[in-house]
Amino acid sequence: MATIMVIIMGIIITMVTTITMATTTIMDIIITMVTIITMGIIMVITITMDIIMDTIMDTIMDIIINQSKKLKN
């Protein structure tokens, strides 16, 4: 999941920078910088959330497995 997000972000950033290079004004450069920074922040948040969700799901699965083992005994 996280890797797909990174690839998508990369494509978006590349598109934004190429469009900006075509019509470069200081304003455009600022917009691009803000966009890239925002994308970066979103990317970090999504990856972090992904990792957290995976960990939570693993923990829940472990608890369920342990509970069912206890019930069998």
Q: What's the alpha carbon Rg, rounded to whole Å?
A: 21 Å
Query: Based on CA inertia axes, which overall geometry fits?
Result: rod-shaped
DSSP strand content: under 5%
Q: What is the count of DSSP helices, taking H or I runs of 4+ residues? A: 2
Contiguous low-pLDDT stretches (5 residues minimum) are none
The description of the largest β-sheet is: none
Total E-strand runs: 0
Can you walk me through this structure?
Keywords: Membrane, Transmembrane, Transmembrane helix. By secondary structure, this protein is mostly helical. 93% of the residues lie in helices and 0% in strands. The radius of gyration is 21 Å and the shape is rod-shaped. The two termini are 38 Å apart.
Topology:
Layout: H1 2-22, H2 26-72
Transmembrane segments: 5-23, 29-52
Keywords: Membrane, Transmembrane, Transmembrane helix
